Amino acid sequence: MSDFNRRLPLIRFFIRLRRLLNRLFGREKTVYVDERVAEYRGYWSGAAKHLSAEFVNLSEDVWEVRLGDRRTRIANYVTEADDPVTLHVAGDKPYCLRVAQNVGLPVALVGVYELGDWPQMLSAFRAATGPLVVKPAAGSSSGLGITTQIETQREFERAIVLASLYNPTILIERSVPAESVRLLFLNGEMLHAVRRRGVRVEGDGSSTIRRLLRGIDHRSLETDRLCLHTLAVQGRSLDSVPERGRSILVRSIPTGDSQQRELRTVYDESITNLISPELRDRVSTLVQTLRCRFVGVDVLSNDPSVSLEKSGGVFLEINTTPGIHHHYHTVEERETHPVAVRVLEYLLNTAPPITSNAVGVGAYEFNRPEGNIRG
Known about the structure:
The chain is of the alpha+beta class. Helix content is about 35%, strand content about 25%. Helix 1 packs across helix 6 and helix 2 packs across helix 12.
């Protein structure tokens, strides 16, 4: 047994203890989608109103939208768009990475390992030429179990243990310093796209990046390792002088996001009109191959107006039952509910009509069986 395997139970204990203490003392600030029930009721009820449909509360977090003889049910953020088998397949990260590669999308995968493969994982870590990312192969969402910017063996060991709390199969990937982009698809068509903007500077033709950072009060980034890595992969440094008008990404995530572990992506900009047709069509092929109807696809790219190959970006993962709250940024989006309206239209149009033998009990609806029921 390796030294790591002997220390594994102790490391797991301390990770769980830290989580418990964070919850007890209110240090857990993340608001997960399961906690957004009232917010999602507003999205779906607002969209139903735009469609002149009836919005019915079946329970606190389950609702039914009715339009004529068509009905669809929603449980907070979960819709009836995809069947459980599709959700299971799409939740298998190694499988989705293979499919992505088959349709021509670049990925950052180093390898897929089982928890007992510590010698092989350690060899992969030592062979790496830059920071790594570790994540569970399935069974997590919203950044849970994921560690980024891993550079030391101690960080690597802790990341492996954290990921193993969710799944014994571990993914190791290269860290790609690029902005996170989500493309939202419905029935093969891209509805909307958003990104999390990092920190950028605009060149003036004479100032170094170091000087430009000081000009926007970001002097602290001069020693930030993510900043240095982001510049290095672009062939630049703090002493580089970008040409006038050139926008340079100096940090792939906002300065407020500094933690390595379980960093949930918060998108802050709508960029639907910036997505290149090549990127859009390649991702559409992926989601149709996976037979996903309603899905968010995460990629890393510093320039979504070109293909991932040209931008040096990669495909990250598939997100079924995607959170539509990521796609509300403008006043118009909050008033017209464009994404929620399109989703409801699709669900109602594809729902089978209610038959004449349907009966209601309170707020619930079900079909009347033929014949007698004997207890």
